[in-house]
Amino acid sequence: MTRFLAGRVLAGLLTLVIYVTILFLLAEIIIPGDYATQFALGMDGAQLAELRARLGLDEPVLDRYLAYMAGLARGNLGESGSGATVAETLKAVLPWTLLIFVYALAVAFPVGHWLGKVAGWKSGAKGSAGLTIGSVGLYTIFPPLLVFLLVIFVSGLTDNKGMSNLREIFNGNRLSQDTAWFMLWTLFAFAVGIGVTGLLLMRKDRSIPRLVWVPLLIAGPFLVWAALGMRSEVRDILRYLALPIMAVTILAIGEIVLVSKSTTAEAAHEDFVFTAKAKGVPDKQIRDHHVARFALFPTLSKLMVSVPFILVGLMIIEISFAWPKDGAFGMTVPGMSSALFESLENRDTAVVVGGLLAVGLIVFGVRLVLDVLQAALDPRIRVGSRAK
Amino acid sequence: MSIELTAGADTRGARRKARAAVWTRFRKSVPGMTGLVLLVIFAAMAVAYPILIRTVWDPNIYDPETGLDITAVEKLYVEEVIDPATEVGRVDAFLADPFAKPGDIVEVIAPAPTSLRHPLGTDPWGHDVLAMLLAGASSAFVMAVAAAITTAVVSITIAAVAAYRGGWIDNALSNFSGALLLLPVPLLMIILGTSTIQASIGPVQFGFIYGLLAGAGAAAIVVRTQAVSTMRRGFIDAARVTGARGTRVVMRHLVPHLIPLAAVAMLIGVTGAIVADAFVSFLAYGENRFSWGTMINSAIRFPSLRGLFDTPWHVLIVGGVAVSLLAASFYLVAIGLHTAFDTPKFKR
């Protein structure tokens, strides 16, 4: 197991180095000009040269690349043009995006997996095709349209001043960065706790009734936060982030249903299903106890490919809420996308690269955890990798 | 199943039979057929616009950007005017007469209702919505096709080279693809589209760059797995024994087995390209060309000074649904193809 772990981590580090190199080159190519360019009209040549020299922008690409990599190795993501370090900038915005992401996935995965399981088991049925088409619709809906519909729906529900109310709610940001990080970690702990409990119960052939776990998942984190004495924060989260969370959950559920359905349908042809049927095990039990469990890990590993796409969907949703700035929505969702697009406007390449690196790191981290989990639970993978 | 497409059946008749079998299975897939029908409709829309604008439609009325048809005007009492400092006020009054004063009565364009002349009505500026819908279809469709073809070609090339050569080349390519897998390609395309060189990026280039990145990443990994297992099969050795050279082995015996999987991967990949492309123009960065994104943007900006419920719904919903359905149609066809080829080792 140690050898397996070490191998995976080493291979992962190599992947990350290549990833950063690709990012660096792409940023060089696609973002024209540099941080100093935007001041070209206001500053004279000497001032510009001085600014470039201070930020190290005047050195050749290779030197900058090597300096960047050397900095990365020491955990230094570089300096943004505005003076703050990239790490600080990201640290301020990451918890918001991650809060939405983790919460949405924690709700979407069990629900989506359950729907996919039901549809995949009866993959020939009429309703199954309908569910597939519906899930594709959820996954491919143009995020700004989804956001618009959600906003209209919610402001229709709240009736009264509708939008102006919502705008007011979104435009202040009373939560501090540290609180956000703390909330994120408790959310993580909660999600992991639920996951582990689920797996343990599964081993004992029990499961939490659906009517209990769905509300538990949705309300649980808020109850935990409230129990930790963060009532006002909970209220703020509900106000700031409820809509983005809903939007991402809808997007993610579509994809999860699709993946889960196809893996379940594949698993339904395995020999052990045939055996179970021959033994006379009830249909529903084969589905829940034999097939769904078997399909769990293939589902997770296929979803890995979708993780960056769901993250992008989230960022698009964040922007949609805030777009246009003076416009119908005009709500600021604090998060990665606001920082990313702001720095893009300022040609602040270091922050853009840092942001993309953060996305890559999140995907990489999730993948590593899954790899290890899979290897821990399935000896064939450990042995297979050693034999290779 | 994809194996039987060609293996041991190198005669033309057998291949036709295999293809017919795939089509029979595809026809039975409800999602696949739904996607195909949608795709045909979109293709027809993409073709229809240039024809219509050259024959039946008067460009002065139906051009999505410069066309204008004032079928009705609405008298508006100006309560307040736009304050130049804060830009708050009634935008429609401003559009009608920039010099209007509070208390004046101005005439503004009223969106035309559904009629034979304007089947989907017009937007608040007098543009025909159906014409906008059709005009947006061609650029989106061209982009999607460019992205799809590039994805397939790039992924097949990388996979075939990696599997045929093996060794360090395979290792290097696999690591490269693995790293690209971390890259959120749609986000990168949005960044690319919103940075200033976008003026030179047309739909074809956009699709091409997307295809390069997506094809070399996720798609290449999926196709490579299939390529490696195909290389181990007997008929490859048989071909070598009969004296076939490298290029012939690759082109005639390896690549045909990769096409089904690459087709599925490319169709799914296109989904992200469509959303990214529309999103760039939604952010009003792609203003140099008309698209569904610009349509949604104009609709969403319109009420910015009035309030959400004044949004020109029909414009926004038509544009948004068009983008969503085009993306969905590619995905649905991919699902149908997947069922038809029935490649059990298929990974998304």
Structure overview:
The complex is a heterodimer of chains A (388) and B (348). Chain A is mostly helical. Chain A has a domain at 2-31 and 77-161 and 241-377: MetI-like (MetI-like fold). Helix content of chain A is 79%, strand content 0%. Chain B is mainly α. In chain B, 65% of the residues lie in helices and 3% in strands. Chain B has helices spanning 12-28, 30-54, 59-62, 91-96, 129-165, 167-180, 185-194, 203-231, 234-241, 246-282, 292-301, 313-341, and strands at 73-77, 105-109. A two-stranded antiparallel ribbon of chain B has the order 1-2. In chain B, helix 10 runs parallel beside helix 11 (292-301). Chains A and B meet through helix 1, helix 5, helix 6, helix 10 and helix 12 of A and helix 2, helix 6, helix 7, helix 10 and helix 11 of B.
Keywords, separated by commas or semicolons:
heterodimer, A: 388 residues, mainly alpha, B: mainly alpha, two-stranded antiparallel ribbon, elongated, disordered N terminus
Task: Draw up the topology in text.
The complex is a heterodimer of chains A (388) and B (348).
Chain A: H1 2-30, H2 45-55, H3 61-73, H4 86-121, H5 126-140, H6 143-158, H7 163-171, H8 177-203, H9 210-227, H10 231-267, H11 271-279, H12 283-322, H13 336-345, H14 349-377, H15 379-387
Helix pairs in contact in A: 1-14, 4-8, 4-9, 4-10, 4-12, 4-13, 4-14, 5-10, 6-10, 6-12, 8-9, 9-10, 10-12, 11-12, 12-14, 13-14, 14-15
Chain B: H1 12-28, H2 30-54, H3 59-62, E1 73-77, H4 91-96, E2 105-109, H5 129-165, H6 167-180, H7 185-194, H8 203-231, H9 234-241, H10 246-282, H11 292-301, H12 313-341
Antiparallel strand pairs in B: 1-2
Helix pairs in contact in B: 1-12, 2-5, 2-12, 5-6, 5-8, 5-10, 5-12, 6-8, 7-8, 7-10, 8-10, 9-10, 10-11, 10-12, 11-12
